[in-house]
Amino acid sequence: MSIATPLPKSSLGIVPSPDVDFSGEQKRYLEGFFAGIAAGGVSFGDLAPAPAAAAPAGPALDDLTKEERIKRELHPFDAIEQLVMDARWNAKPEPESVFRYKWNGLFWLNPVKDGYMCRLRIPGGIVKSYQLRELAAIARELTTGYIQITTRNNFQIRLIEPKNCPEVLRRIQGCGLHSKGAGADNIRNITMNPCAGYDPYELIDVRPLVNELATLIIASKEFYDLPRKFNIAYDGGGLISAVEDTNDIGASAVKIGENSEGIEPGVYFRIALGGVTGHQTFASDWGVIVKPEQLNDVMVALLRVFIKFGDRINRKKARFKYVVEDKGLDGVLAETEQFLKFKLTRLEPDAPCQAKREFSQQGHSHVGTFPQKQEGLVYIGASVPVGQLTAKQLDRIADLADSYGSGEIRLTVWQNFIIPNIKSAYAATVAKSLKKLGFPSEQSNLKSGFVACTGNKYCKFAASDTKGHAIAMMEYLDKRVKLDKPVNIHFTGCAHSCAQHFMGDIGLLGTKVKSESGEGYHITVGGGFGENRKIGRQIFSGVAFESLGSTLEGMLKGYQSKRTEGESFHSFCNRHTVGELQIAFDPAA
């Protein structure tokens, strides 16, 4: 075997591999070629590749959180190949994959269950009957058969084995829905008034704005690497709130009349920033008004401010709220205007043309039969106990929407649904059918106000069975307390507060206690949203589930016996101290 004579390094810096055996003729050719180039004055530096771009300003890789490093090692959407491989072997995901798969809306439920939950993305909560039927089929054929409505007018399906994940994703996309970016460091499902386009009281139909922004988000890779999750809500000023002030960005429609400030009269949006009720913070009024045609430009600019300045070193401080606190509202405004390239219109709270909502939004006004702005049509809101449905029920809802409506269903942030576009003559028939299905459309001042997160049946963070306990309390209290004013009762299993317990009239935060079940709750009261926005105050700690019914009964009866005429539970709680409430709610007092 012959051994090639090593060639000297040329002026181009190219050295043939020592494993290549060149012939004598080849060696003479290459030597002549390199000598000719060198004689022409060409050096290695002349043909060197362009230097690598400077690393962007920001923390060094070692300083980033574990989650940020995982994203940089492999973009989560590029992990789809691994997801397919896991499916072939029905394998559990590796720890890094658990985080990355959330970009496709898949949440690994271990150690509670060996399987996934899939969260969808349904902008504004608008879903069609054919989509309901396909989701029902997916749930029936590939999961436990249960579907849940979330507090972001959205659906979740569970329990999915690894082997079925690619098929679940394919079928979700096949019916025109998405799960892309439904979890982790992404923009979560956009919420809105559930009756947008139908509500006779609304100032503006926000559906086109929601759909436009949703299209931008789904298609733009820029928005799939946020420092943490991000919530956006649009409120068109209608009867039913979007609870927009609990979001990172909340846009509320307002009307500006004739004024001396030089502002053109019309409908605008006021923007609130930095809401995270799990961190006991409502969004703050930004002090600007925005024309509808500019609103989504502002939304995108604010997202870019968060991407630029959000904390990627401390996961606990990575929400938009902390950018707002660090820079202040004026600082955020200056950064936003740099992205926008135009100035926004300021409107101080005490301005002569102060914009306000024309009426107070109501508590349980989404449940019942109500006239639409379209003559002769009504929408019917149905109550879904803690947001849980079966595949069979979903099929039947789709049938009702097709037979009596326009084939459309609206999901609400209260874990209920609405069927719109029903002819008035058929309203009673639809209401009767819904009640037979287990979804009453008659308002209950008690039962209509229950909200519950997933709980420890499927969530590893939850300390209690929130859905099971909420249903039990619903039945227990309904037999013992008759309310003439609506009360919202929110069950959440952990400090993440997915059920937003701090904004409930009564909020229950799951905790471990010494009792037969080992499960209990810290209890807060006096929370509210919108015109009644308030973070609830804790009055009881570690109440065991076994005692919860009698505790809640004592609270509600104490309120009824000691309130002023017509006083709401919210107002009653907020005009008393914690000590006074503890006495008022004690049956023995």
Which key phrases capture this entry?
single chain; 589 residues; alpha+beta; six-stranded mixed β-sheet; five-stranded antiparallel β-sheet; 21 strands; 31% helix; globular; disordered N terminus
Notes on the protein architecture:
Helix 10 (391-404) runs antiparallel to helix 11. By secondary structure, this protein is an alpha+beta fold. It contains 15 helices and 21 strands. The strands form four sheets. The chain has a six-stranded mixed beta sheet. It has a five-stranded antiparallel beta sheet with strand order 1-2-5-4-14. Strands 3-15-16-13-12 form a five-stranded antiparallel beta sheet.
Q: How far do the termini sit from each other?
A: 103 Å
Shape: globular
Give the C-alpha Rg.
29 Å
Helix run count: 15
The share of residues in extended strands comes to 15-25%
Q: What structural category do the secondary elements indicate?
A: alpha+beta
Number of β-strand runs: 21
Integer average pLDDT: 88
Enumerate the spans where pLDDT stays under 50 for 5 or more consecutive residues: 1-20, 42-56
Give a nutshell description of this structure.
The chain is an alpha+beta fold. It contains 15 helices and 21 strands.
SSE diagram, text form:
Elements: H1 24-39, H2 66-73, H3 80-89, H4 95-100, E1 106-108, E2 116-119, E3 126-128, H5 129-142, E4 146-149, E5 155-160, H6 165-174, E6 191-192, H7 207-219, E7 232-235, E8 249-256, E9 266-273, E10 284-290, H8 292-309, H9 320-340, E11 345-346, E12 368-371, E13 377-382, E14 388-390, H10 391-404, E15 408-411, E16 417-423, H11 427-437, E17 450-452, H12 466-478, E18 489-492, E19 506-512, E20 519-525, E21 537-544, H13 545-562, H14 569-574, H15 578-584
